[in-house]
Structure formats: structure tokens, C-alpha cells
Amino acid sequence: MFKRFRKTSIAAALVATAGLAGAAIAQQKTMAIGTGGTGGVYYPLGGAIANVLSKALPNTQATAEVTGGSVDNLKLIASGQSELGFSMADAALDALNGQDKFKSGKVPLQTLLVVYPNRMHIVTIEGAGIEKMSDLKGKRVSTGSPGGATEVMAFRVIEAAGLDKDKDMKRERLGVAESVNAIKDRKIDAFFWVGGVPTAAVTDLAATPGMKIKFVDHADLAAKMNEKYGKLYSPSTISKSIYPGMDKDNANTEVWNIIVTGNKMSDDDAYNIVKTLVEKKADIVAVHKEAESFSLDNQVQERSPVPFHPGALKYFKEKGIGK
Predict the structure, then answer these.
(1) Are 74 and 44 contacting, i.e. CB atoms less than 8 angstroms apart?
(2) Which residue among 70, 224, 240, 317 sits deepest, i.e. has the most Cβ atoms within 10 Å of its Cβ?
(3) How far apart are CA 322 and CA 166, in angstroms?
(4) Looking at the predicted structure, is the pLDDT value of residue 7 above 90?
(5) What are the φ/ψ torsions at residue 171 (nearest 5 degrees)?
């Protein structure tokens, strides 16, 4: 009788333990983060963010997903396939308003964090015959992948320079890593890329033996872009110390990046995510220095055309950042 009771008790305990384990698994949250291509900055930063969130938030498993970039990330949020995504401010505004690449419908978005500025790189090599924007006429040029926001901003830069993206150049639609390979193989003469600095793929091109990297100045176009599209763009500089072989600083344009979510995230989840990203910033900076900009002083609505999530605002308020 005692042996039978003991066996029954053990069996019951095992069932109970299995049930508790099953409940724990069931309660675990999965969080997909839309990033970009492997040659850019979104992807390594997204991987660092996923690692930090998975470690800091109970029962949370965050993963960084390779995507085409901002446009893809916004569409993944719209379809419920991603919880978070990186986006350039201009692409996010288009999604919020249902414009340009989002004419099929508005995407309800909320900003969690303003992260860092993206610099527009217009990259060529010595010998391609390109010194200024007008020299792109008749050249083979990549304006970025269809799923990224490089293409959005590139078209606006080209337009502000008085060029026609379809008539004045032979246009390719390649991501940054593919663009670098194409320029190495002499299949294109120049490419547009908007990203953090340094971008790994651009560094790779700059360090390629037998090739001299050059950047096209275009900072003067920011005002004209803003006249048409709103105050999204600013003149900026890529220091000659950023990439090997640069002879001088590059006068370019920049737009801020934001991390966004849809309209389903709870205030508590948003609060905890933002708190973690700000307070664990050092762990993310260890992967890429652009994370230095994950700071409270950058959390101003002027840098995000998308409204902040209430959970993010709660954390900012606690830290004395008024909105």
C-alpha cells in the first residue's frame, strides 16, 4: 500500500511539474525585431538589442530578423509579423500617413526610442568620373534595395539636385553589401546608402586594395528636401577619419532613425523595453558605437514624426524628460 501511494505521489508530482513547466513556456513572449541587411548597421544593433532584451526581461525571447530595411520593417509591423522595427523617420511618416510605398493603407505606429542619425552616403570610386551630383547623369547607379528607406531618401536627394531618377541614370536597386560588390566588379559607378557610421560594407570597399573611395557632397540639398517633405533632413558631415582612404570630410544629409512598434503593445511592455535600452546602452555600444545616441536627450518629438508610445513617455517623465 505504501509503495503504491509513493509511486502515485511521485507520478502526481511529475505531472504537476510538467504542467508548471508548460505554463512557463506558454507565458514566454517572443519578440521579433525588424532590422536590415547584414552589411548595414541596423542588423548588428538589432542583434545586440535582442540579446539585451532577452537577458533583462523575464520570459522574453527577442530575435533580430534580417530584412530589406525600414520599408520592410514597417510592413512586417503592419502585418503583425514583427513587434519592433528600425525605421528612418521619413519612411515611418510615409507609413503613418499611407503615402508613397504605403498607399495600400496607413500603418498605426508608435515610437519607442529615437536612436541615431542615418547619414546619406553617395559613394563612388576614383576613375568613375563622378565629383558632384550632376556627374551622376548617364552613370550606372544603385539607389538602394526596394525594401529599404535608402531608396526613399535617394529619390528625394536626386530630385532636389534637379535630376530625374529614371531618365538621367541607369538605375539598380541593390542593398549596401550588393552595391559594394557591384562597384568592385565595375558593374555600377556609384551607389546611395543611408546608414550609421561606420557601415561595415562601406568600410570593406574603402579598405579594398587598388580602389580609392570617394563621396559626393550634397549637404546643400537638405533645405530643398525639407521644403517638399517636411523638416526631416539636416546637413551633416562624415568625418574623413570614419572610412580608410578619405581625403576630406564629406558634406552630406542625415535623417534620424527610430525604433517603432504598432498599436498593440501594452504600456508596461513599452516602458520596460525603453528602460532596458536606455539603461543597458553600454552593452549595445560594445557592438556598435552608434548606440551612444540611445540617450534621453535625443528623445524629443521633433526627431520623430511618429508619436511616442505612452509607455515610453512614462519612462521619460520619470527621468525628467518633458514632452
Answers:
(1) no
(2) 70
(3) 45
(4) no
(5) -100, 135
